[in-house]
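User: Structure tokens for both sequences below?

Assistant:
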Amino acid sequence: MDPFFTEIGAAVAAFEPVPNPFDEVQPGGLVRAAAERLQADLRGGFVAAGVPAAPLFAPGAGKMFGVLVVAAPDGRIGFLRAFSGMFAGQWNLPGYVPPLFERDARAAIEPAGEAVVKELHARARAFAASEALARHRGHSRTLAAAQAAEFASMRARHAANKLERRRARSELGAAARDDDAVRRDLHELDQASRADKAERRRREAAHAEQQREYAQQLAPLERRLAALERLRRMVSRRLMQRIHDCYRITNARGDTCGLRELFAPIEPPAGAADCAAPKLLAHAYAHRLRPLALAEFWWGAPPATGGRVAGVYYPACREKCGPLLPFMLQGHDVAAPRQFAPEANVASDLVIVAEDEWLVVVDKPHGLLSVPGRSASQGDSVLQKLRARHPHAAGPLLVHRLDLDTSGLLVAALDAGSHAALQRQFVRREVRKRYSAWVEGEVVGDEGTIELALRVDLNDRPRQIHDPVHGKPAVTEWRVVERSAGRTRVLLWPRTGRTHQLRVHAAHPAGLAAPIIGDRLYGRGGDRLLLHAESLALRHPVTGEWVTFASPAPF
């Protein structure tokens, strides 16, 4: 029998469709029991026999693990286990299915190829740190700084000259005389103005010439560095192509396809086919095991970008597994993905907090979209309900939005002018918003400010991640107001309005390190997300007076 097969249950009478691997619904039944058995082993401190789990809890070192419930040819039900990528530099660990690639083919390619890439990388780094390049770059920076200072001094002098000429012209005009002396003085003032402009042009030309001389000395060095980097990228890309050619992907029908063919016309991303799910399916097919259900969960410290919590189940990623898993599951009856959807018939009548002829403020319930979704099943929304309430208004036009999972105050304009006036306040960050939330665990400290730049996770939309390089600035102030039964109530003031800002800032290790309770994206799902927009203050779009609206949190 397959040594990776762990028996878990009795034979089943009839096979149900395989749950979709991209399903956001939490797993249940045998697959959850299998995952909990693996989690129990990890909780005991070992990934495998004699392999400690402690490295997983180093900063950013957590990993996805997966289990696949399968039916053996003799009818027994069991499960396989896998981890994504490598663990502690190892592809193979006792009890875990092996990687999907052809080991001998990859072993003949990778070591030598990586040695070449590392050598090219070392050469590029050495040249980038060379004395010649540093000296010429330093000269260019020094020249640029000196030219900027000289130009600034000249501009200040010219500005003072201009003011003096303006004063002189004003005095000449006040004299109300029209004689040769006045005309001569005005001509001299015009000549002085032309002289300043001519000086600026000469200085600009001289600076440009100096910059050209330095650029001619620096350009060959920069071209050489760029060529080294380009060569390293080309060799690295070709090595990755050869490695990807070591993967042959088989589906349930027995069809086989190359990894690069599945991702064509683009190249597969790094790590494609090394996730837990494709490893599990490939091993099952190779040993005539019928896949029944799959579950993947995170274990260990969250990644540096945030967005993963130990023990929480996540669907397969779209970037690495999107083209891969549908092919591998061909030949099976696979259920359609059950995406998280708005709650049916939630709050048929909106709670109106305030209303006049220019704006309306509502208390949005959780589970109701702010605006209609893309599918027909996601048509119900705050906007649709407001349009039904005001069928003859030029609006309603929502000025901002709340997540489907978030409840609380939402403002809409009833005409275009009010909408523009309110939008300006949001763009200028003049609107004052306060949220109330319960978060998991004990928050360290009583108050503070979180500054973590955010961007969308391109591999796993709509999740957002922290990216200090490419992310947009995001700032949240917070204060603890209650601690109870291992959880903390906090007040949150978003100073920027990024997507999922409060949820990411709460969950991220560099934020509160405490996911909001019920957060299915950044924490553990539950009955609802305990996040509520409880206060909103802004200037009325017509009167200009400050108005404040309140809605106490319902939890």
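Moving on to the next sequence.
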Amino acid sequence: MFDRFARVVVWARAPLVAGWVGVAVAMTMALPTLEEAQTGALGQLVPAGSQALEAELMSAELFAFPLASRTVVVERDRDGLEPERLALTARRIEQANVGRLPIPRQPAGAYGITNAIPGLAFAREFRTTAVTSLLFGGEFNQVERVDVATEYASALQAPPETSVGVTGTIPARAAQADIISDRLPLIELVTVVLVSLTVAIYLRSAVAPLVTLLTIAVAYVVSVRVIAVGGESIGVSVPPEVEPIVVALLFGVVTDYGLFYMSRFRRRLSEGDHPKDAARRTAAELTPIILACGIAVAAGSAALVVADLGFLRAFGPGMAVAVLIGLVVTMTLLPAALALAGRWLFWPTSPWSRSREPSNPGPAERLIARVVRAPKRTIATCLALLAIPTAGLAWIEVGNPVVRELPQDSEPRQAYAELAQGFAPGVSAPSTLIVAAPGISSRRRNLADLQAVLTNQPGIAGVIGPASSPAQDAFGVVLSRTGDAARFILISQTDPLGADAVRLQANLRARTGDLLEAVGLNQAQAAYAGDTAILGEIIQTANDDLLRVAPIVLLTVALVIAVFLRALVAPLYLVLLAALSPLAAVGLAVAFFQGVLGQPELTYFVPLAASVLLISLGSDYNIFLVGRIWNEARRRPLKEAIVTAGSGASHAISAAGLVLSGSFAALALVPIRTFQQLAFVLAAGLLIDAFLVRSVLAPAVIALVGQRSAWPSRQLTGTPPAE
């Protein structure tokens, strides 16, 4: 079947190349890009059935106004805000609540607070800072909210000595999208240079990089358009974080497959084949291996579709679509280009003058020979080496510091820093505790006792509640007008989206029932709302997704390898080996970012997304290496086949590992902490996989298991003795 496929590709080489280029040009002209399909919706981040979101809606219904703003305007003057300034701020808040602001579009409302109030527990300075939280209806998207907030900040008419800025979750996400869009061309340029240099050096050619880049360009253009159109057609917002990862993934994967094809094509030419015959034989021999590699990567990425978080459900299939399109383009366009270019592909060198796979024993062959002679000692040494970075997982902390991870010069980060000077950082996104029971608003003494207890809880800088209101009437701020609910506004001492705040609130939530009973409110029902509560649910859902998705990814990859090898034993230990690199890479990231750099946490989705990608991408090397060993084992004893095929494949695996890790390392050019962490984990994991797990540990395990690897088939038995 693959021989017929190769004949068709070589026969139609010119129409195939021209056709793919035409498709890419047509899609560029007619279809939207990923950036145009991004809406920035926050709903994808909230797990289905979120109790915190339900509490947020309940708070909006029971009380006079909601607290969830996520768009905050900060005014600060280190020398002190004059009374006239504070009066103007109060007047603007009043105008916002009646729809009479002197700006084109009106928010739904606003509320504010200033540290000019004497004795405010969560104030760090006096009369230096005022914070206005703007409220919006559902008709405003992310960009429109930021625009209105910016116009509101201008309407405050602040003098030059007063700093005015916009911060919050929504402005931070909008700033992230802008930064990603601005840095994407640089990522593409750096990755192009990396791919070009690697291919040029590995193949000693000036033409091969151009063919590789043509294949990547077609795959990238088609992929991003298909993902954008697919997301729009099913109503799924494409996360801004997807496009840089698509770029890195496609550049790395297509280059890997291209290196496999071109390396074997050169070998055929060096053996004297005509270019057309060499292209046909290369395509027929490697296409099943490349197909299995691509399907394994795509299937592993697509397993994220079972995640509960909408962000991950969009992330996984997007990666799978990109890989499948890159696979189809590579399997058709690249062999056709090989047949068209012929020997000119390796200009200025002569492909028939030397082979990159040495016939004499080299360092790789000597290393694998030692591995095969002592597999148990090799396995023990490798596992010990991998255990060292993996130990870092014991100290992992996760959060989503969407504001703090921005560059220092971004407006949301600067405004947050100004806010944190005048107040405890929790003012940027206060949490809400709703306590509900019939007639509870009349039990002011019990509610005051609860407020005092909450104020003394770890991590709480201050609480606004019924005890903060001297009036006996229920105005709908902290006491519902129905008299059946009370609202406590909790201000955290640290970033409300950081790991510390999430952990402390989880502990508080677990003890809330006991606290209510201690103050005589044991019949009341409690619910938490706010960004900290939502993030806690997101992190818990992500942890549950990891336990759910990881086995599915491993099983999916194992099934692909089992079908490819027609064996059941080898896939089992190969997927177990695939899990070692992600564990070591994430543990190493914990040690580097939390230990060396002193960052409080990793972004919550980095360990899960990176692990899925590493397991999936590691299957490339699995299939390529084991496929070569299986082929060699048909002609020689298994241990000799491991040495011969392992050393022969080591050059391609090393080059592919460097390209793929370099492509993902380029993500660190985005000056956002999440991308830097993701780049580190993926690059480190791929290097560990390529140079330790696949090149040393996997051959040792295959040698130790021996012919049983092929069970229930007998592919590795009855081989002829070595000549």
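User: Anything stand out in the second?

Assistant: The mean pLDDT is 87.
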